[in-house]
Amino acid sequence: MKRLVLASNNPGKLKEIRALLAPLAIEVVTQAELGIGEAEEPHHSFLENALAKARHASAAAGLPALADDSGLCVDALAGEPGVHSAYYAGRDGGREARDARNNARLLEALQGAADRRAHYCCVLVLLHSANDPQPIVAEGIWHGEIAHAARGGGGFGYDPLFLVPGTGRTAAELTAEEKNRVSHRGRALAALIARLRNENRA
């Protein structure tokens, strides 16, 4: 596999995935670069949403497709925002504005909460074709806690609130290289790459 379409228009995800796949010399193009619109994500699990996005992008592009569905799951909120992480506080505005609103809503929801445990979850689905009967699926989990205030200018999404265990820093205060080594997406991609190599399908 030399080229695949990424079923996401999230620039943060694209940057991380391109960096992590660089050792395999796989060219990653986004669905937006190919004029492909985003798929609907009506499902209640990361896996179902990732599979729907991958099949949509692969069918439209005629290429292998990689889809990522990920989000933040907060213990005190019964796993919310979960699959609704990207639009937790609504769909209006650009990505940065939505991220700021999402973070503000999360802090409000956790006001006074003693339990601030949370984890990021990433599910990756790789299809060799739109009708691939054996999708390659990999999952990564990154445990942490929710800070009381946003810190750091890196990353995206909830990173300014996500405290990384043992570091005293939020995910937004890590360098890109540090984050890729330990993040949910980094772990999921490492597992995916191992599967590809083991199955000799790369």
Question: Helix content range of the residues, please?
Answer: 25-40%
Domain unit count = 1
Kindly state the mean pLDDT as a whole number? 92
Radius of gyration: 17 Å
Secondary-structure element sequence?
EHEHEHEEEEHH
Q: Any idea of the CATH topology?
A: Maf protein
Number of helices: 5
The total of beta strands comes to 7
State the gist of this model.
With 202 residues, the chain is of the alpha/beta class. The protein is built from 5 helices and 7 strands, in the order βαβαβαββββαα. Helix content is 32%, strand content 22%.
What does this structure look like?
Strand 6 and strand 7 form a beta hairpin. Helix 1 (11-21) crosses helix 5 and helix 4 (176-182) crosses helix 5. A 7-stranded mixed beta sheet has the order 2-1-3-4-5-6-7. It has helices spanning 11-21, 46-61, 95-109, 176-182, 184-199, and strands at residues 3-6, 27-30, 65-74, 117-127, 136-146, 162-164, 169-170. It contains 5 helices and 7 strands; from the N terminus they run βαβαβαββββαα. The protein has a single domain, classed as Alpha-Beta Complex (Maf protein). The protein is of the alpha/beta class and 202 residues long. It is globular and about 50 Å long.
